[in-house]
Structures are given as structure tokens and as C-alpha cells.
Prior knowledge:
This protein has seven helices and six strands. The chain is α/β, with parallel strands linked by helices. The strands form two sheets. It has a three-stranded parallel β-sheet, sandwiched between helices. The protein has a three-stranded mixed β-sheet with strand order 3-4-5.
Amino acid sequence: LPSVRAIWPVVAAQTTKQRTFVIFVTDGDDTCDNDTGGDLGLSADQNALRAAHKAQQLHTRYVSTEPESSVTTYVIAFGTGAAVNRANWIAWGGSGMKFGPALSGPAQPAPFVATNTGTGAQERWSRIPTQAEKDACSTCQDAIPAADPTALSAALQAVIDQGQSSGEFSDQQSITESVYEYVDLAPLPTPNPTVS
């Protein structure tokens, strides 16, 4: 998230801001525990709830008065390796369902459905959302199942069309010009041959 937030000043400087969305294609359930490869001991459901929490963080506006500072995540479950129910939780988090911080009081206030649990790399939604909670979320999008390459192509085109159907568009230069400027931070290959 820090690198996503780092590009916000570039977006904020634009007079007409573009809508931002992520197309997340997966061919299997989340098995990555943390950024260093350590095993957190989470179940497949807990990993998906953790990914849903991360998608929610992207969807949460970085600047509360700027809808364009929100990133919508569209999820495509390709093949048979990804459980569609788990992909749905991630898609719901990335399109508007909100779980919030734990409170000491008896109930979680709106707009939160429930609380988060865990800390650090283990932070995740505390439970599986219900279909009724999804139905009450006016912006929540289901994951799109794509069984084969033809269905994947159609799903990608549908998401691109949907992503383009709302928001403001302009002829300003794309902000991707600033996204790829981190190449100098990549480590050099070893051994590092020198020119003689």
C-alpha cells in the first residue's frame, strides 16, 4: 500500500482524475502467508479473509473527499483451482464491503459489517461474510468464474468495460509514467559482470 499511496500526489495534481481499478486473476486459493515466505499457520479460509482485508484497504479512500483515491478490485477465478466463494470474499472487500477495527462496545457501528482480527501480517476479517451482508452492499461485486481461456478473455473484457463505464476520463498523460521509476531499486544480478 505505501507504493500505491506514493502515486496519489500525481493523481491529485490532475484536474480530471481517472478511476483506478485492479484486475486480479487467480488460478488458485491464496497460499502465500507473508511477504517473506513465512508460514503464519492460517487456514485457506483465513488466507482468503486476509486477502479480502487487503482488498478492502485498497478500496478505502486515501483522501476521504476524493472518490478517485479508491481502488476497486475485480477478481477473476480462472480454472478450477480457486474456490469461487473465497474469491467472492476478496471481490466484496475490493468493491465496498467493510470490516472494521475491534471495538470494546457490544456492537460494530455502520458502515462496518463486523470486526477485523489478528495483527500485522495476520490481520484479516474476523469471519466469513454472509450472502445477506453481500446483498446489503450496493457496490459489492462477485468474483467472475472463468473455466477456460475463452471465458477468461470474455471476463477480462467485461471487467475492462465495466471499469471504463463510470468515472471521469481525460486525455491527460497516463500516470503510469511514474509507476515504473523504481527500477533503480532492483538489486543487480550476481555475479555482476564488469565491462573491461
